[in-house]
User: Fold this.
Amino acid sequence: MTTTPAPRVQRLLITGAAGALGTQMRALLKPHVDSMRLSDIAGMPAAQNHEEVVLCDLADKRGVDALVAGCEAILHLGGVSVEKSFEEVLGPNISGVFHIYEAARRHGVKRVVFASSNHAIGFHATADTLQTDCALRPDGYYGLSKAYGELMARFYFDRYGIESACLRIGSSFPEPKDHRMLITWLSYRDLAELVRCCLYAPRLGHTVVFGASDNRDQTWWDNSGAAHLGFQPQDNTEPFRAAIEATERWPADAPQSRFMGGLYVQMGPYPL
Ligand code: NAI
Ligand code: 15L
Assistant:
């Protein structure tokens, strides 16, 4: 009996490929796609087999259009990745996400996996449990740009049928660094698996999914609305718990403890 091999993404564009997550996803997703186009405004290690490296500023509409041509799917990690002034966020994140979706439309890209952030919903209370269709409550200009990106994804699905996953990533680092991250941490391995699920789910539509590992006290985010992805995180923060619990906690009534966005809820305003 012959079996038909599962279809594979022929060329995946990864933006932000020189960054922390881009570097990890470049390595971890390689076995799951035929080839990758790796892009960033910053330099990165030279292309290996089945890779291309293309430097591009996301704020450059024509540059992004050329970047996207010939790609079947996009993992959009590029842009400002922490809280900054509106003016700093505007080009990479607001114009940038529009350029990505518009190029996706022009070149027939089928799927986009958009690195949103927990900061799109950072002003929800840590006492609550959010579903994937909860209200957007950004905690700053960075979070606003991620909320805008999620709405851009929604619009391009409703209007043009481009499927997207918006990953509300918690804290994706080599290991959790503080008490909050005991809840919000997402291992690199789990992130790569989440992206793989988004690339290959039979139906994606416009999916919002929270990105956290299988952490003991992770009661903030309920992913049942994204169950069709089949994402099962493998890692958790237990190996790091003892060391972190030996460190000082934020007071329970402090804003960074009361709201999911942590310290981001008190950043800004910025000078003229
Ligand atoms: P990072 O800052 O290490 O990587 C972002 C990359 O985007 C950098 O390499 C930077 O050079 C590139 N970039 C910035 N402006 C650009 C522009 N104008 N044109 C082209 N490229 C530009 O951040 P990290 O941690 O790798 O995050 C990747 C994505 O995931 C970001 O979109 C971030 O907002 C999102 N995310 C990350 C989380 C985390 O815990 N690491 C949590 C939530 C979201
Ligand atoms: C994010 O969105 C940032 O990209 C990352 O640097 C962390 O600050 C993370 O959120 C977090 O909330 O821990």
